[in-house]
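Can't paste images in this forum, so I'm doing it all in text. The chain is below; anyone willing to post the predicted structure tokens underneath?
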Amino acid sequence: MIDNDRFLGCILAGAVGDALGAPVEFYPIETIRERFGPTGTTGYAEEYDGIGTITDDTQMTLFTLEGLIRGHRGSHDDLFGPMQHAYQRWLHTQGLEPVWANNGGVFATKPEPDGWLITNRGLFSPRSPGVTVTRALRSFAREGRRGSFDNRLNNSKGCGGVMRAAPCALLGEDAFAFAVGTALLTHGHPSGFLSAGALAHLVHLLFQDTPLPEAIAATRAKLLGWDDHEEQVAALDAAVELAAQGPTPESIAERLGGGWTGEQALAIAVCAALAGEDLRQALLIAVNHSGDSDSTGAICGNILGAIQGTRAIPDEWLAGLELRDVIEQITRDALAEFGDSPPEWGDRYPFW
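Text version of the structure:
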């Protein structure tokens, strides 16, 4: 049984890390220091016309939660269909095609997408969505073919698969394989989907009270059973080594990269989680580097939130987090759905 506060902490801390990293994503560390001082950013800054604003990382995490809820209350035979449907609803919020039929494809059986989550208009805001993800979902809308092991849509190992994978830990021992499958819906390179499986499995182990170093070692062992694991395993090993030495923005860039790819993003997040004395320090390590700061911050938040729960998140960061009420509500709904007595959701979460 997953501790409710720790699952909520996993999702909320991920959103906080995302919001911390959003204003410094794309900038080299030299520019970050020029803007915020020698230690880099230390809190929320303005981005997307607001303070504490989330990005596509958190948006897609919320739709992953919705896909899990709607899939779980269905036949249980095919959770990837509900997940694809959820991601097509997220695509609709990005405004690339205003008509639902052009975003939903085979799922567009009604004039507008259904369910409670998409009624929250704050989600209808493009937040630098990943090109790989939007291309894959738009392709599905046109052709109706899901990405899978047998249908690789591309050879992308971008971090768009791993940054949304933490909720898959709800599936317990099946989390690794399921997260791999959800990432394959958009990313065809092994490092793009194995990183997602690794994060989901790591978070699952943390919910079982496995200490972080042991959970990382067990996740590494799990990876060894999958083909083409070498790049992801090497990145994890480098993350553990660098955490023991004490990471700096420069050493992160040199040893782990910028976080743009799946294996890099997971490695930077793991390194920061190991090196930080508390969640605050770890998140600041995770976002103050030359690269994909929102994704590395989000993943680091997922990891430490799963260990420490909501109590570890600084109050001022929670208070200023965009769409906090929506994030908390759908996370609690997912816990209820996967609990002992799932509610009768009705139109809130229709059968997919």
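The longest helix spans residues 4-21. The beta strands are 46-47, 50-51.
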